[in-house]
C-alpha cells in the first residue's frame, strides 16, 4: 500500500466530532438483538 496521508472530507470530520462528543448517542436496545440479526 502506498504511504499516503488520510485526509477525511468534511462529512467524515463532522461524524468523527459527533462520535467523540457523545452528545447524540442513543442507547442501543439489545433485548431482541439476536432475533433482529436473524431477520436480516
From TrEMBL:
It comes from the Bacteria. This is Toxin-antitoxin system protein. It comes from Tannerella sp. oral taxon BU063 isolate Cell 5.
Amino acid at each position: 500500500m502506498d504511504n499516503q496521508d488520510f485526509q477525511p472530507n468534511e462529512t467524515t470530520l463532522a461524524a468523527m466530532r459527533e462520535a467523540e462528543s457523545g452528545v447524540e448517542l442513543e442507547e442501543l436496545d439489545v433485548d431482541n438483538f439476536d432475533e433482529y440479526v436473524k431477520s436480516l
